[in-house]
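Posting this for the archive.
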Amino acid sequence: MVKRNIYLENVPLKEAYNKFFQRIEELKISPVGEKVSVEKALDRITAEPVFAVISSPHYHASAMDGAAVKSVDTYGAMETSPKQLKLKQQYVPIDTGQPLPLGFDAVIMIEEIHEVDTETIEISSAAAPWQHVRVMGEDIVATELIIPVNHTVGPEDIGAMLAGGIWEIAVRKKPVVTIIPTGSELVQPGELPGSGKIIEFNSRFFSGLITRWGGEPRPQEIVKDEYQKIKEALLEAVKQSDVVLINAGSSAGSRDYTAAIVEEAGELLTHGVAIKPGKPTVIGIVEGKPVIGVPGYPVAAFFILDLLLKPLVYKLQGLTPPRRNIVEAVMSRRVVSSFKAEEFLRVKLGQVRDKMIATPLPRGSGVITSLVRADGFVRIPQLKEGLEVGEKVSVDLVKDLSEIKNTIVSIGSHDLTLDILANLLRLTYPETGLSSAHVGSMGGILALRRGETHLAGSHLLDEQTGEYNVPFIKRLLPDVKVVLMNLAYRQQGLFVPSGNPKNINKLEDLVREDITFINRQRGAGTRLLLDYHVKKLNLDPQEIKGYGREEYSHLSVAAAVASGAADTGLGVLAASRALGLDFIPLARERYDIIIPEEFLETEMIQRLLEMINSDQFKKEVDKLGGYDLEESGKILWTSH
């Protein structure tokens, strides 16, 4: 019977880290040196100080084209009484870089010489000793230190070492990190994954991180979920590696063997770290080599690698990891967190007035796009129940602060046209970005009220008047001067699987016993539209199976229907087309953006308006389907 660990520990991160690195110290795992050609040493870390073998220049060299002279022979030369010098005896023609002839100690520029004849020149000013001469050792003196130990070699260092007569140097050997991807469900990139199959991209993802940190990644072939095969792959890897990563199989499922294999083959230090995402982590030592069992989900894997592997790879190069910049920000929405683990919350940032605004990104440990979009992350301590709207937080940056400050913050309703605008902005003005946080139309208006966004997307339908957005702005933003601009009219309707297998044709079908629905979150314009029509048709929301199950975007709703997690959901036509669903039209609605007047004339917003009014925007939106841009960019209402 195959041995496996069933129960995970919940070891605090600091304790797991200290235990791991204390064991590495005990085993005397330390940097190793190797010799490389100077010409191939770019970005390598020096293992020894580098001293010059020769001086540079190693002779007195002319710094100008002209004539080498003996300075004493030039004394007394003036404009009013020029002096003549004889070839070879008193001057020698010389070009830049040529050695100064013996006994000569200065150079006169060719522009200051008058040629009398082939043997004589005339000068009108005296030359000071060593004038226009690069004396021996001016740049580098033999035996002088060129670069110290633990120095990252740059292009200028290569030039200086070669000038100093150095052809080969000792550098830190790049730590070899072997990556073993495990899982019978994995297929290589390039293969079309069938049902139940997943593209194995983690080893490429990990390799990029390891390379960036100065290591040498060695991804292996996929190993199926078989205990003996994984064990054999590990034992082979430790022979040729400084560190081994086993990806997936670190949890406590029926095919999660990593912990048991590490314990059998070596020493299991920790199985389960109290962080989210990243709890199912295995840390151990096999044949004197550090082994980390990395969770299969990419976001969980990233944080484990960042927290444990990154400092180890730097340590094996004799370095400490660079510290991330930290900024203070305020939360744009409430986040509930577990008491059981320290959470690493990915956030999108933007500066509105003098406030840095942090908007949470999707928290799933499998959502790799949250890493793509993240500007930084917030650490929520263990035993803290979460973060409140407006709470001050420290954000560890993963993007450049100047890029963040040039980002338009859009908080509100989700629409696919915002993604098109973000892309066009980057294409036309690479320094300007658009950060879109999907919290629903009502959430966007409340963010405007708190002064935490540059604009808000909204499509709130007032049940009393049948009017979009204006009644809500009047009620919720009475003291904020804003303009209401149309972005698009769009088709809302029900998503159903291709072919509509359950024959869903109207909203009344949602109360059928065999229909499962997926809803949008409270405060979303789509949710208000649904509630408006449900009320109009006298339907009971309690009879709609799945009414309380919520998603935060049209694409998320469409994905739920496409995956079979729900039979239907409400959203825009473009989202249904994107995922190959059928669409049952329900209503044509108006989607607007609300912009405070104080931001309207700023360069960032003017650039955004330029994109909205561009032909390229219209072309890209037309491809989505279900949009009418007749009034796009038109100001429909102002609050004064």
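The chain has a mean pLDDT of 93. Residues 70 and 104 are 5 Å apart (CA to CA).
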